[in-house]
Structure formats: C-alpha cells, structure tokens
Write a structure and sequence with these properties.
The chain has helices at 11-16, 43-50, 68-80, 92-103, 118-130, 143-149, 172-182, 195-198, 232-245, 251-261, 264-283, 302-308, 324-333, 363-368, 385-399; strands spanning 85-89, 109-113, 134-138, 154-160, 186-190, 208-212, 226-230, 288-292, 315-320, 338-339, 349-351, 375-379. With 400 residues, the protein is α/β, with parallel strands linked by helices. The structure holds pyridoxal-5'-phosphate (PLP).
C-alpha cells in the first residue's frame, strides 16, 4: 500500500535514516574519507572491478566518481525524501546545472515559473539558449498557463515550491498529472524552501527533487552543497554527468552537511513556529502593507500549501508601508536578524530584494517581475519566538 503522500521526514528520520548499523572502528559518527583516489591490490583485482564484479558494491575508483562520506549524505537525503537514490554536488547551482544539462539537448523546450530562483532562470534563459534550448516562463503556480505553454518538444518543467521571495506554492499533484499526461516530459522541483520535513514532492509524482543543501539541510550557514534525489535511472544519469562536469562535493563539506542534517527535524519545527508567529504578528501590524507566508489565509497559495505541507517553512516576506526607505529603516532597526544573502540556517537573516538580490534592476524592471521596492525578505532562524517578536515590534516602532 502506498503511504499517504502527506507524510514527512521528522526528527527521528533526520537523526537515523540512512545511517549504517556499524562503521569502521565501531565509530558512532560519520568519518571524513579525505582521499582523491582508491587503490587496487593487483591487476586481477582491478580487472574484476572494471568488469563490475568487485565483491564490494560501494567500491570507488576515483574521487570524481564517488566518495564514501559523500555517498552517505546522498543516501540520507534520499531516505528523507523517500527517493530511490541521490547524488550530491558542490553547490545548489551545481546540482541544478548538472541536472538540467543531463535532461535536455538542442532543440528541446523547457518551461519554468516566473518567481523561480534567479540563477536557475539565468541558466535556462541565457546559458541553455546559447546551446539551442528553447524556453517559456509562466506565472508562478499557474498550472493553466503551464498547460498552454507545453509544446511537442517540451522535455523539462522546472518548478519551485515554495518560491523565493513570495513563497508561492505549486500544487504538486496537479503539476505531476498535467506533465505525465503529455509523456516524455520530466519535472524537476526545487524543494529548498520546503525541506523534506515540510513537503516530499516525489510522493506527488514529480520526477526529481533538488535542494540547495547550503540552506536548510546543512542549516548553519557555513558550507555550500546541493543534492538531487529521485529514481535510480535518472539519478545515475546525473551521477555520470557529474563525473564529466566535475561538480563534485568535497568530503569535508559533505561531513558538515551530514552533521547539520541530524537537526533538520528540530530546526524546521522551530522555524515553522517562529515564521508563522512572525507572519501573523506582521500581518496585524499597522505599519505593514502585506505579508507573504504560505500558511496565512491571505496568501494565494494557502490551499496548495495546506494540501501538501506540514509547516510553512522559514521564509516570510513583507511589504513595509512608506516605500523603499521605510523598509530599509526596519531592516536596519532589527537587532537579531543579520543582513545577509542565503537562508534556512539557524541565524535569522534579513534583506531587501530591491537592494540585494535585484540591485541592478531599475524601478520599472522591478515592477515588471513583481518585486516591490519596500519588500523585505526574512529567513527565520531558530532563535526564541518571543525574542524575535519583540525585536520586530521594537524595530517597527523605531522605524515608523
Ligand atoms: C540558494 C538557492 C539555490 C542555489 O544554491 P547554492 O547552494 O547557493 O548554489 C537554488 N535554489 C534555491 C531555491 C535557493 O534558495
């Protein structure tokens, strides 16, 4: 019997899923296998390995093709997402770029959603365009527009749920249904903002899930990485491409991500609580024009989020009344969140997309892509809820 798709990774699976029963030297913790290559005792052993007959199925030949520390991380993320297999990369963008390059060729067509990660959009609209891959961009979460955009040569749909900064969610079951009905199209869902604790996209029928492990999976803003999980036949395609493109994750970085992953469950629960409390408090505040959080009834994605997510995640965005300068005053007045790019970690981070992520765009260009100059993006950390609420209350007083 297939499980209810609304099941999620939790603290128990964060700590234990994918961990081997025994380790070398009876160590409890994962070791860092710092090696670039692997040895063979003699040519007979090497020949056996090359024929695929080595008694150790996990044996590796060279560091670009595999590493035991990295492999354990891959297995763990795959288990948390209930995937057959996983493959790790040196960053989230390395993961997305390797996946996309594995799945499309010249003459193919790719569809992506408007509010997607900026560098993913750039990869498709600029890099892939140079190699003869066509694309269409449809409004976030608009599955009617997606259906219309699909062509005979469409081979890949890239979605994110929730998106950044407006935390739009796409109905994953409906998305998978539309795409599957057309055949020959793969869906790649960037689930970085959801984490497997809040949503498991594969359970709704999408093909591949990608994470920037830099964010919640690692969780401490101290390492970059990316992971793609899905069925074995697709993941092995990506693993082969990684061997060609060289987008490998270093074992030291894999160790940090694997350690961070142990607390994914507890961190995400706290972030869900903090973010919902802050979203509600901001929505009730007279100096705030609008709040974006998937589990606020006012959010356009509320129904989709309720249907497929356990919690709303760590990202809250809001528009401050009074425009760009008023928003900057709030950003400057909060004491706990640091001004920084990135998100999902234990520290609350805050930024104004018009100034940081989209600084080179004019007011007209910002309006065109729907970024209000007074929009503030908050990645809520694991600090105490009361302290964060108090900090925002004082900042809105000071900045008014
Ligand atoms: C950060 C991010 C990426 C890119 O990941 P890096 O690890 O920075 O390369 C991709 N998608 C989303 C949604 C992200 O937030």
């Amino acid at each position: 019997m297939k499980d209810d798709p609304k099941t999620f990774a939790n603290s128990t699976s964060s700590v234990h899923a994918g961990i081997p029963a025994t380790r070398p030297h009876h160590a409890l913790a994962l070791s860092i296998d710092a090696t670039a290559t692997y040895t063979f005792a003699n040519t007979a052993e090497l020949e056996r390995y090359m024929r695929g007959e080595d008694p150790d199925p996990d044996r590796e030949e060279y560091g670009r093709y595999g590493n035991p520390t990295v492999c354990e991380l891959e297995r763990r993320v795959a288990e948390l997402e209930r995937a057959e297999d996983g493959v790790a990369f040196s960053s989230g963008m390395a993961a997305i770029a390797t996946a996309v390059l594995s799945l499309v060729k010249a003459g193919d067509h790719v569809v992506l959603f408007q509010d997607g990660y900026r560098r993913t959009r750039q990869l498709v609209t600029q890099t892939l365009a140079r190699f003869g891959v066509e694309h269409s961009i449809v409004p976030s979460g608009d599955l009617g527009a997606l259906s219309v955009a699909l062509r005979d040569n469409t081979r890949l749909v890239i979605a994110e749920s929730p998106t950044n900064p407006h935390v739009f969610c796409v109905d994953l079951a409906e998305l998978a249904g539309i795409v599957k009905a057309r055949g020959r199209i793969r869906t790649l869902v960037d689930s970085t903002l959801a984490t497997p604790v809040n949503c498991r996209p594969l359970e709704f029928g999408v093909d591949l899930v990608v994470h920037s492990a830099t964010k919640s999976l690692a969780g401490h803003n101290d390492v970059l990485g990316g992971v793609v999980v899905g069925p074995q036949h697709l993941v092995s395609l990506l693993r082969d491409a990684r061997g060609v493109l060289g987008s490998v994750l270093d074992p030291h970085a894999a160790f940090l991500i694997a350690r961070g992953l142990k607390t994914l469950g507890v961190r995400t629960e706290r972030q869900n609580e903090n973010a919902l409390a802050i979203a509600r408090a901001l929505e009730a505040h007279p100096r705030i024009e609008r709040v974006f959080y998937p589990l606020l009834e006012s959010h356009p994605s509320y129904a989709a989020a309720r249907a497929q997510m356990r919690g709303g995640g760590f990202m809250v965005s809001f528009i401050v009344k009074g425009g760009r300068a008023a928003a900057s005053r709030v950003v400057d007045a909060v004491k706990i969140p640091k001004i920084a790019a990135s998100m999902g970690g234990v520290e609350s981070l805050i930024e104004q997309p018009a100034i940081m992520s989209y600084s080179e765009l004019s007011a007209e260009q910002l309006a065109k892509i729907g970024i209000n100059p007074a929009l503030v993006r908050l990645s809520v950390g694991i600090e105490d809820t009361a302290d964060l609420l108090q900090d925002f209350a004082q900042a809105l007083d000071v900045a008014g």
